[in-house]
Amino acid sequence: MKSGEEYVPDRGDLLWLSFSPQKGHEQAGRRPAVCLSPSIYNGKTGLGLFCPV
Q1: Cα-atom radius of gyration of the chain, to the nearest Å?
Q2: How many Cβ atoms sit within 10 Å of the Cβ of residue 50?
Q3: What is the pLDDT of residues 1-53, one digit of tens each?
Q4: Strand partners, 52
Q5: Global pTM value
Q6: In the chain, how many H helices and how many E strands?
Q7: Coil vs helix vs strand at 7
């Protein structure tokens, strides 16, 4: 990745995400998550599908 480029996560990447605010009994705060959606989708839509681990 070059300096100044925006990072687009790819399927299988492990990231730290902030899951705040939480609702009910969900765990909040900074937690590891795995990316489930491909980078093409993430880059074009600006959205991604992640699963906390």
Answers
A1: 12
A2: 19
A3: 667 788 999 999 999 999 877 777 777 789 999 999 999 999 999 999 999 99
A4: 33
A5: 0.78
A6: 1, 3
A7: coil
